[in-house]
Each structure stands twice: as structure tokens, then as C-alpha cells.
Design brief:
alpha+beta, five-stranded antiparallel β-sheet, three-stranded antiparallel β-sheet, 8 strands, 38% strand, Prepilin_Pept-dep_B_prd, Pilus assembly protein PilW
């Protein structure tokens, strides 16, 4: 009987340790999923934004119509937007451009949208703002799993005697939908390659 009691106590201790280890492993898995998904989006954005302004080696930089810089940015407390265009080839006899918008909307502030449109003209700023409602956009995160709490975009000019460029700072903060206390913030700064 004493041996049985000792066996039961040992099984309870082992079971308790196993349950705690599973909880820790589950939390770690959730955190890794969040970080990995957020880093994937940051990497995609970082790679694509380096193309902003590329004109096919014609000697100038592309800008959206009405934009003062190669990157058009807009920020507020519950939304952020970065838009740009770049040359991707030829369609018939006309150049073909890819117009890109990344946006966290104030009405849907828990999501980060990407909108892309290939066309033979550069979009203007009004089209950029309206593009997000055009059906050409999709959410970069599954809102059932991950939500965006902040998408912050800023840029600062770098000017020298012969050249001009910009540093672009982007920060993205995400959290798990079912567990908002589990969050991550990723940021990067990139020197724009296709300056004005």
C-alpha cells in the first residue's frame, strides 16, 4: 500500500511537470509563430521597397503622380501608408509599372493590407488612397491568428553635393488575436536605392 501511494505521488509529480512543460512549449510555439510571420512580412516589404522608383535604367526615378518623393508616406495614430511604383517591363510598346501600396487603415486598423496594380501609367495619390477599396488588396496576416497594432512609416532625406537619397524607417507591431499580451515589434531602416 505504501509503494502504491509513493507510485501515485510520483505519477502526479511527473504529470504536473509534463503539463507545465507542454504549456511552456505551447507559449513558445505561439511566440515563434508570431515573430516568424511578422519577420516574413518585414522581409517582403524590405525587398520590394528597394525597387521603389526604379525606371528601367533610363536615368531618372519614378514617382507616383502628385508625390514629392519616390516613396509616398502617410501616418496617423491608427493608420499608416507607404506607396511607390517601379518599372517591371514592357506591355506592347508601352512601359509597364507596378504600383504598390502597403496600408494599415484606420477603419480596419488591426490588419495590414498590400495592394498591387500593374499598368502602363503611374498612379496618382488619389488613386493610391482609393486603391485599398478596389478589390486589389489582401491582408498580409490571417486576422483570426495575427493582428496589427501599429504600422509606422517615416523617411528622412540624405543630401550630399552630387547625390540625394532617403532613409526609410518602418516599424510593424503585431499581436496574437487570441492572446493580445503576446506581441512583437519589428523594424528596419533602409537606404533608398533609386533616389530622385
Amino acid at each position: 500500500m505504501v509503494a502504491s501511494l509513493i507510485g501515485i505521488i510520483a505519477l502526479m509529480i511527473i504529470g504536473s511537470l509534463y503539463i507545465n512543460a507542454m504549456k511552456v512549449a505551447t507559449e513558445r510555439y505561439k511566440q515563434l509563430t508570431l515573430v516568424q510571420n511578422t519577420l516574413s512580412v518585414i522581409q517582403m516589404l524590405s525587398n520590394d521597397i528597394q525597387r521603389a522608383g526604379f525606371d528601367g535604367n533610363n536615368g531618372y526615378s519614378l514617382r507616383l503622380s502628385g508625390a514629392a518623393e519616390t516613396l509616398y508616406t502617410r501616418n496617423s495614430t491608427d493608420s499608416g501608408l507607404v506607396a511607390y511604383a517601379y518599372y517591371i517591363g514592357v506591355s506592347g510598346a508601352s512601359p509597364l509599372y507596378k504600383n504598390v501600396v502597403y496600408e494599415q487603415r484606420s477603419g480596419a486598423s488591426s490588419s495590414l493590407l498590400i495592394c498591387e496594380k500593374k499598368q502602363t501609367t503611374l498612379m496618382d495619390i488619389n488613386q493610391v488612397v482609393n486603391l485599398t477599396g478596389s478589390g486589389l488588396c489582401y491582408n498580409l496576416f490571417d486576422p483570426k491568428v495575427i493582428k496589427v497594432s501599429d504600422f509606422d512609416v517615416s523617411s528622412e532625406k540624405i543630401e550630399g553635393l552630387k547625390a540625394r537619397s532617403a532613409l526609410v524607417n518602418i516599424a510593424l507591431e503585431t499581436y496574437l488575436t487570441e492572446q493580445p499580451s503576446l506581441n512583437t515589434q519589428q523594424a528596419f531602416t533602409i537606404k533608398q536605392r533609386n533616389w530622385q
